Structures
1.
Amino acid sequence: MNIRIGLGTDSHRLEQGIPFVLGGIFIPFDKGPAGHSDGDALLHAICDALLGAAGLPDIGRNFPDTDPAFKGADSKQLLKKVFEMIKKEGWKLGNLDCSIHLQLPKLAPHIDEMKAVIANLLETDPSNIGLKAKTGEKTGPVGEGRVVEVVAVCLLVK
Ligand code: MG
């Protein structure tokens, strides 16, 4: 069996008046991730983990933030496209594990829904998706609520 590990990271600045989207779902909050697309840092980190594992160009090269086609883009569609590219190379997901660094909003009530969305997009069982939320202990850019950061690792198998 052929096995590949992949690593992806992403961060987005949080600003007032932007819808808060993470893991493909909207969560009520007064701030949201600034970005050219919808700013979904979790799905972007997952895209890069998958692309990295397959040795393909990263998300920025596939979906440039200078391209008006991706302005306000739903990142679920970007992840879907990435997974199609991965499948075309013969890979399927072994498992995915992610850590989200975010002070607020609290993510615990939303983790299962995010897992279900991601598992559906990656055609796998939610038990193959790990999602952990960590605060910044009220210090630094994460703890002061200025940014959301995500680290994702995945295994691809074929
Ligand atoms: Mg991003």
Note: Residues 10, 12, 35, 41, 44 surround magnesium ion (CB under 6 Å).
2.
Amino acid sequence: MSIATARAYPNIALVKYWGKRDETLMLPAAGSLSLTLDSFPTTTTVRLSEQLDADTFTLNGAPQTTEALARVTKFLSLVRERAAQHGFPGHSFAEVHSVNTAPTGAGLASSASGFAALAVSAAAAYGLRLDRAELSRLARRGSGSAARSLISGISVWHAGEDDQSSFAEPVPSPEIAMVIATVDPRQKAVSSRVAMRETALTSPFYPAWITSTEQSLRDMIAACQAHDFTRIGKITEMHALRMHAVIQTNDPPVRYLSPTSIAIFDAVAALRERGIEAYATADAGPNVAVISRPEDVTAVASALTEHGEVHIAHAGAGAHLIDTPQDTPISLQHLEGAA
Ligand code: PMV
């Protein structure tokens, strides 16, 4: 197949990944656990063309020329290398069109859905037949958290010891709903890649963060398997606050949460006082994600509207191939070329 389209959704970690053991292989220092959502999809089409003398990449219709293109090219080179190892003559460059519906770079894990969709579409376009664990390992090389967007619903990404053992797989769990409160959709000032490297290099608390994350992950997996929503929620909120606390001890310090983010954590605590069980978390940005039981999600969303734009999400599907949409610029060119 020389053209393929995949769709992937962001995931929000309930036990966070923050720190790499190996930056080239993208091996995390500890495992993590997340919920893949049914909202904010990224749809990516990859078409191979012998006419191209370099990869091209458009994001939401805009041609990318700098860092974003470099990351895509690096990832495609890896896929080409694998394709060559499998005897598929996949050395053509590719045209990549990606449509991302999440606010890019604002802590809603758009890099996760982005690289999960790219892994699935590029593997198919270059003729690689990979199973879900292999696709998860491949997506990991683009952005660590992308490994988890290959899996539907709740998944654990094993830290592993090498490329082979570091991938995500499903974890049985109760149904969990999520309210995303978008506080600020702008690109964050310090990327997670840079800030997590600095935490490892400069925070005196980094070793404790890693050992406590390993413990939180064990507790969280047990809570999911026991369908214990209260325990899942408590670990989620505690772990998020620990991550943001340790990031603030970088030198120079980084602070992702804004006063509005903190107000949302307070509003969530007030909901609990009223008997509605909700727990907050936030990735590398000011937006806050709040988990609840599905039956409480509307009440949680309406309690948070005064703080920002709210969006209700549920568990969604892992990255998968879809038909190339008719309005993809690529498919028109493809058809014109074929005519
Ligand atoms: O995969 P990256 O480089 O986008 O890092 C993601 C880091 C967090 O979103 C903050 C935590 C996580 O586990 O997703």
Note: The chain is about 40% helix and 20% strand.
